[in-house]
Design brief:
The complex is a heterotrimer of chains A (1019), B (145) and C (456). With 145 residues, chain B is mainly α. Chain B has a two-stranded antiparallel ribbon with strand order 2-3. The model of chain B has no long low-confidence stretch (mean pLDDT 88). Chain C has 456 residues and is mainly alpha-helical. The longest helix of chain C has 34 residues. Classes of the chains: A alpha/beta (1019), B mainly alpha (145), C mainly alpha (456). Chains in contact: A-B, A-C, B-C. The interface between A and C is large, with 74 and 58 residues.
Chain lengths: 1019, 145, 456
Amino acid sequence: MFNLSSVSIHMKMEEQDDKGHREAVCPGKKGALDLDAARARLAETKGPEFWRSLEELAGSPEWQEMMHREFPKGASEWLDSVSRRGFLKLMGASLAMAGMTACTKQPLEPIVPYVRQPEELVPGRPMFYATAFTLGGYASPLLVESHMYRPTKVEGNDKHPASLGGTDIFAQASILEMYDPDRSQTIASLGEVRTWGNFVEALRGPLSAQKAVQGAGIRILTRTISSPTLADQMRGLLKVYPQAKWHVYEPVNRDSVLEGAKLAFGQPVETQYKLENADVIVSLDADFLSAGFPGNVRYIRDFAKRRDPDSGKMSRVYVVESTTSATGAKADHRLPMRAGEIDQVAGLLNRFVEQGHPSDVFSSQGEKFAAAVANDLSAHRGSSVVIAGDHQPPGVHATVHAINQALGNVGKTVFYTDPVDANPINQTESIKDLVADMRAGKVDMLVIMDGNPAYDAPADLGFADALKNTNIPLRVHLGLYQDETAELCQWHINEAHYLEAWGDARACDGTVSIVQPLIAPLYSGKSAHELVATLAGQPDPSSHEVVQNYWKKQHSGADFDMFWRKSLNDGWIEGTTFAPKQVSLKTASFPAPAVPPPGSIEINFRRDPSIYDGRFSNNGWLQELPKPMSKMTWDNPVLIGPAMAERLGLKSEDMIEIELNGKKVTAPVWVQAGHPDNSITVFLGYGRRRAGRVGTGAGFDFYPLRDSADPWFIAGVTLSKTGETYKLATTQGYQTMDTPVGTRPLVRTASLDGYHKEPAFAREDEPPKDLTLYQPYPYEKEPYAWGMAIDLNACVGCNNCIVACQSENNIAVVGKEQCVIGRHMHWIRVDAYYQGDRDNPKAYFQPVPCMQCENAPCEVVCPVGATVHSSEGLNDMVYNRCVGTRYCSNNCPYKVRRFNFLLFQDWETPQLKMMRNPDVTVRSRGVMEKCTYCVQRISEHRIDSEREDRKIADGELQTACQQSCPANAIVFGNINDPESRVSKLKRNPRNYSLLADLNTRPRTTYLAEIRNPSEELES
Amino acid sequence: MNCHSQIWTGAPLLEPVRESFRSGKSLVWTRVNDLPDFVYFNHSIHINKGVGCNTCHGPVDRMPLMYNEYSLQMEWCLDCHRDPAKNLRPRDQVFNMRYEPPSSLKPVTMDGKEYTDQMSLGSDLVKKYKLRTVTDITSCSTCHR
Amino acid sequence: MDERNESTTGSRAPVIEPGHTFATVTDKISSIVLTRPTSSGWFVGFGIAFLLTMMMLYAIGFLFVRGIGIWGVTIPIGWGFAIVNFVWWIGIGHAGTLISAILLLLRQSWRNSINRFAEAMTLFAVSAAGIFPLIHVGRPWLAYWLFPYPNSMGVWPQFRSPLIWDVFAVSTYATISLLFWFVGLIPDLATLRDRSTNRAAKIIYGMLAMGWRGSARHWDRYETMYLLLAGLATPLVLSVHTVVSFDFAVGIVPGWHTTIFPPYFVAGAIYSGFAMVLMLAIPIRKIYGLEDFITERHLQNSAKVMLATGLIVAYGYVIEAFMGWYSGNRYDAFTMWNRLHGPYKWDYVALLLCNIVIPQVLWIKKLRSNPLALFLISGVVLVGMWLERFIIVVVSLHRDFLTSSWGMYYPTRWDWMTFIGTIGMFLAAMFLFVRVLPMISIFEMRTLLPEAEVKE
């Protein structure tokens, strides 16, 4: 079992031998001599003596140090404003450097071995621990890779039904969050550094005072909590202080889902879907394939499984949506529609499913669509599913429940269970009450646990103002960052990250996972468990005890240790999965809500695809992650449809002023193909004031427009052009395959029927193998020939591969300015292409890693042989040989090579050094880099297999992108083994290689995309 | 402290080691055989394929003070990777610091066969230990990632 | 050019105005260096050029500190100004070698008055060009890895790469040009040594003259040597820019991957080279009153060379466009479309104007013999040739195969500083040259005099 005592972070820090900061060139160490210092030392001496001291200096270790640094200190920190002095100083250095770096010997490296080495540790070999990441209360079960007790990479728990090995971008990026140097590092009181002891001291008085009044003045505000332990602790606390209140609020909450369930069944239920049983999937504004949607990882897996055109029973997907989403992009039929009108479609659908459509004259497009969908649904009773989006009003959810009941889907594709949320209350109401109490002066002690209401609470409540001006005697904030809320509390407790503390949480199916720390708290942070226990009067509790004790209560019996170890090892606790629940509809008729006037413009508030509700806004990986549809990074422009943009004379990057009953926000526009007319979409979570050096100031804050009454959409905004423009950073400027001289066959598609008629439609004859000046290498004779097949039909554009790759391969974040000029560093990108009617186009995703061409154009042009082929067909990139001519990138037809134009990597921050994957070189300035099929993993497995005198088994070795892909769209393996999965896929008639006519012979090939449209709507 | 809890338990030379063991504070050693950070070297596979300790580290057992026997420069590594046969020895000899390559005076026997010169032994070991081809082990990604 | 033994057929304007004797020629040329006071104009001009050079050094220094990122280059446009300027300067250099070597072998004696500073121009242009390949790499301090030398890594350069061919082509070219220029200088250096009154000057010229006494044997050796070098230099005129063109032709990028590049690059090189010669010759002959030596005839001939090479270049453009259509290759076709209609279309239009349309006026004799007009046209051509390289490098790269990876290129102030800086450096070198060395070959000019006619 995991043993905290051996994880003294202090020890790791002094662990000089750690390869956490491998560098393409000799590393610079801390405390290196600066040129000023050198000059100062020389200044004192003159004449012949000068020379002697120069030698001394040159002999001194610091000097050696400095010469071994490739770049003088601070060369990287430089901003564009050039200080002349600094400039000359550095210039002098780098000129000196020019002569000296390459040909010098290694600097002396001290090594500090363990005094008592833990048995399970083999230095240089990673270990994996099961834990879970929690978002919105829902746990994603994980396996976390640990090098010398430093967590370095997050993987999905392949044994866990909710993951099956997949993850979502937030879980992948959480590793960076843990090492974020901007995280709050101390307990603070009114900005003064304090200790936990001080805090406990400060609590004593108020708590005893509250005892007297049964805690009438205590309010505790948490985020959605699914942790059985924490819920139990809270209830315990409420027993001690019966009058105290527990409030829950998250800006991205599921209130309308809850209310919908209440409306339909009279009780809160969790709805789960079995998409692998669904022949017809209908989404009413539900982006169920997007990260952040409960259970999305499992849903993507099942969805992709049923989209396989070779399976014989490919599902059909209808999506009605109020903005553009990956789910809409994968739909066979998509109907863009204002959010406010979708409940009508739901109503129609309900009616037509009951009675069918009377005639074949349709009053509206929506009606035609609904009729067709209804017919398809009726034809697949029991094997269809209708899903409503979280931000649709309760009525829609209730209606959808009714439809699913009517179709007999319940128990087949739709299941109801107890809610995962341990305290399923209407969160908007809850925070309303809280603010009311605050204003009424009923609150003496407010504990905000892990939330940022001052930033993200509904605007009309004025939470921040209430917190500031209703002088509550004791305000405590527990959080990872000293954020907008911490600013307004006397006490800020720096929270322990989930990778630093014990805990537990429920996955979407109710299964409990133990959250197991991978490392001792970097800044001795405290977890919610510890805070609550302290409030309950427990003397210095440890989260480990708290959680273990709770489960001791649950699992009485002698074999607790076994049970505990097994739960930790598996990553979940046996028998905690929720059993399906029998619920019956109370009523089938629901009040149709008011219809917005057709002319008025509707505004949609959505969680951001990359930074969620703003809690991840200081996460560079996520900030720089292109949003699925627009490929936007670092910003949240207002999405607006092409037709509407034309009407209002708006172009992308124009600034507009959005006015909604008196409140105004100014933000840039992005014209998004396929966005519904008379409607705009804004993403929440940007415009933070106190996020950290990454997130502060990025994007625009739309929370001020968001009221508790209509948290998700409301009609009646007015837009006015301000005349200014604003530069936006997209990673893909051109999102079409059409050029004035013809369409390029990059993504190849066909309808299911077309595919059956002509299976090899995507095939393209490659030029003959000998059509090259150079002798082709006999790869077929090698034991391994690595190849990859990417199924475009399965890919849902979730971006997971990008973050996974970034984490696995130490890929740098470059910042907005660099992204604007196209210098982002992602080794794998997901291109999004639109085709056809711009107001409702077909959209396709295409992940593009290095193609590992057998006839690689990059290799012949590299003057120093820094990129050459390995015998197994890999296009090796040797960073430390690269001189940076960039010729290879020019000559790469796929443009998958990335160049370190500046010193993009952070070589100073110790936390980030600890995060790095020690098996991958950290690239230096002026060096080309690119995807290597995770060659470090290949080597590791090859060495292991050779030691055991066997071959690498198929599936044993996975690339990072493949491993994290929830859709199984990426398959990597040995193409010399005809039985490997990748070989089978490459034999599939849909298989084609990109730009095959160039005779590059890419090892990465694609499986063409197949859509399954219904005749009824096609006609 | 593994061995020295048994032998030379009182040796003054080892006082720092004992001190470190008592205090729990690590000894700081200077790395003698050090590779650049962009070179990835795996001991296990070399031992597994029959590369002796002193082939790379030199006669460590006869070094009063540890020193760097070979340059460990790329050409030096490649010299072996381009022709491993000339350095291989039977696995059971890998840790033998006094091992001498076969000669007519001191032949080496393996699997009952007697070898009197390194090349014949080496080439047999290449087959026996299933060494990858020279093109394989001289591919850049063998050492650089 | 059929300009053979024109010195006998005195039909055309003479290559040297009548009334000159050995003595006057020597006087006129050497006095510029030795006796004439340095004009304030020279100081101003040199001062400006020098400041520009300093600006270049500043830009390069900052480049070394911060990295290539301070330039506009990005993915997909991995090469920007640096390579554009490199090709442009190398091209300009060509005129010198052509004039001194090929015209020598073709016995184009009219070349004698312009070959000296044409060669100097070549030398300076090549050094200006030479800067760029070095500084444009990501890690300049490792650029020496491009040279094949025995090393402890046990690896060699990758000889299939055109950049390696460049290394050899350009370095050879620089060496030969230098030798050629210096050897040609020796007799005149001796003259200066003998005529200069200043002791220091005597010593310096003396050392450079390498003990030249003008004995028959000296002349004999000299002639052989000079001829040999001419022989060596001649193929270089063609080879260097051919190899440079391979940088692109070998690439897979649409707009690069064509076989017409070598001839069309060489023609372009000579085109811009002569333009530069004229831009230098015209003011110099005016300022230093050398109209007798650099006569209308020289201008005429240079203009004709420009016209001819310009037409070859035009042919290159036409063929490129034709192949874009004829190949039926969707990428080549688009590249052509993109040049005409894409975001950089105005550069392409300007290119056609500068390189094809405007120079056609050279058909008119009056303009050919009008120094001012020639000066302006030459300027236009130089701009045009720079644009051509910009179109080839940047506009081909910015939209290649995958539409998803298209991008735009915006040069930064550092790009401009470096570019303009090299022009400054070139001019500064030119200023020094005309000041301290005979810009016209004295002894070769004397051979043009009637007295020099040898009658058997």
